[in-house]
Structure formats: C-alpha cells, structure tokens
Design goal:
The protein is an alpha+beta fold and about 130 residues long. It is built from six helices and six strands. It has a six-stranded mixed β-sheet with strand order 4-3-2-1-5-6. Strand 2 and strand 3 form a beta hairpin. The longest helix is centred in the C-terminal third of the chain and has 12 residues.
Amino acid sequence: MTTLSAQDLSVHRWENRLLILLTEDTEDINYKKQLEELSNCREGITDRKLIVYQSTRDNFRNGQLSEGEWKNSPDIYKKYKGNKPGFQVLLIGLDGGVKMDQAEMISCEKIFGTIDSMPMRKAEMRKNKEG
C-alpha cells in the first residue's frame, strides 16, 4: 500500500479521505466526465469526508468543480502519476493509503461503495446511527 507523504496532502491524514484527479490535459474527456459525475453527488462526498484534488503536470487545486484557484506546484502530479499516461483517479483513505487507482472515470456509486466497505467508515456509520 502506498502511503501519503506529500506535504500538501499529509495534513488530511486521519481527518479526510482524498480523491485525486490527475490529468495531463484539463480538456481530457475522462477528466471532464469525472468532474461532472462528482458534481452530482456533493452530499455523499461531504458525508464521507472526501476532499477532491485536481492536478495537472504543473498545477493543482482542490474542489469538486471549477472552484478554487489553480496553484503552481507539480508535487501531487509527480508523486502519484508515475509513468502512466492520460487520466488517473486515486482514492486515498484516512490512513493515507491508496485504496483505488484507475485510469478511467469512476462513478460516485463505486467510490462510495469502496469507502463504505472500509472499517473506519463502517465505524463512522455505526456511530452516526447511534448518535
């Protein structure tokens, strides 16, 4: 399991899950489809303490759509992209481990299903049900 160590993202460990969208081109069809998909499930994203990061070769921003300004930094892209071409989606758990790594758009249903099957999320759901 890969762990999260990029300084920008390590602040989220044990607080938030991360969905990292990596693209060479913000006009990439998979990237655009992923943003559209995420825009339709904001409540589920919030409920699961999921923060979305978008990253290109030279810039990154956090936000589900076009929110947030692009910041100049290749760190996230370099850390997670490796030699894989094209679009890539990574799901990072609360522990900083990579839980999902795909080269195509992922439905909210699949993202949420993966998160909801994690032990820490199951504990959160039990706690929310009881409280």
